[in-house]
Every structure is written in structure tokens, then in C-alpha cells.
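Form 7-S
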Amino acid sequence: MDVWKSYILYEEPKKELLSDSVIRELTYLIEAGFHSRTVRPEAAEALEALSSFGLKMGIISNVLSSTQVPNDLKRYGLENYFSPVITSADLGGETSSFYIYICCRMCRCKTGRMSIYRKQSHEGY
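Output:
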């Protein structure tokens, strides 16, 4: 939320009046409106195969919008493959924070068995 108040609206005198929920919604609208995302055609088939082996999958995402990832998963038809979906916007911390992993443990996620980390590249922005 500090990104909005510190960088985007830094000259706005009433920026402190914006609630976290309004900032999350603004972020979602920008992300959904200006970025085009696609899912690989074989994604559903691959996730179905992994699920058939009893693999439980969750998502930890470092996003400012708490609705972006769940909405994208639903749009792609992939929402049933991941539980829980944890975003830094929901928890108020970056996904690199140890706190995120504590939350995963509280959701009974077994992050210690196997974790896949994909760092997003922001080159070109």
C-alpha cells in the first residue's frame, strides 16, 4: 500500500484518506486493464495430472491486489487446483518475508516438502 502513497500519489494532499481496500481495487483495475496475461494451453492438463497424484498446490503471490490472482485463476479455469491462494496484499507483507511462510503453515501447507519459486522479471517496464 505504501507504493501508492509514497510513489504514485506522492503529491496528493489527501492520499492518507485512501483505505487499503480502495488501494487494492485501484491496483487490480490497473493490472487487469493494462497488462495482458495468458495461460499456456497445456496448463489445465498438467495441473490435472499433478492433482491425480494427490499433489496439493497453493500459490503465494507478491501482488498489491488481493483480487488479481484469484480472478485470473477463475478466468483461466484453474481456481480448483490451488488452495490456499495467499497474496502479500492480504497479509500486508512481501512474499519474501518469513511471515508469509508462517501463514502457509497455519493453512496446513507443507512448504518444506517441495516449493517451486518463480521470480517475476520486471525488465522492460
